[in-house]
Amino acid sequence: MKREDLKCPKCNSDEFITMPNRYNILKFVDGKFEVEKSEFTNEKERIFCRDCSIEIDETTSLRNKKVVLKNKLN
After folding, report:
1. pLDDT tens-digit readout, 13-55
2. Average pLDDT over residues 54-66
3. Phi and psi of 5, rounded to 5°?
4. Which of 70, 16, 19, 56 lies closest to 41, judged by CA?
5. Are 26 and 49 in contact (CB under 8 A)?
6. How far apart are the C-alpha atoms of 22 and 53, rounded to whole Å?
7. CA 70, CA 41: separation in Å to the nearest integer?
8. Of 36, 46, 41, 37, which Cα lies nearest the Cα of 22?
9. pLDDT value of residue 62
10. Could you tell me the sign of the dihedral formed by the alpha carbons of 70, 11, 3, 47, in that order?
11. Is-contact 69 9, C-beta < 8 A?
């Protein structure tokens, strides 16, 4: 596997983030917000490039063993 296959094809970043499929329920206690509990949503977790925010096609990336950007038509 080539080193560039491990990076974002658009901006060359090697860091990726997820859009979480859960949310926190907060309470305001002693002048600050505290997490009371976290709950999952029915949404699928999505992966994005940390630098340019382009969505990554996880299925194709895993199949091709390289980072592949998501097609905007999907």
Report:
1. 999 998 877 888 889 999 989 999 988 888 888 999 999 999 9
2. 95
3. -70, -15
4. 19
5. no
6. 19
7. 22
8. 41
9. 94
10. negative
11. yes
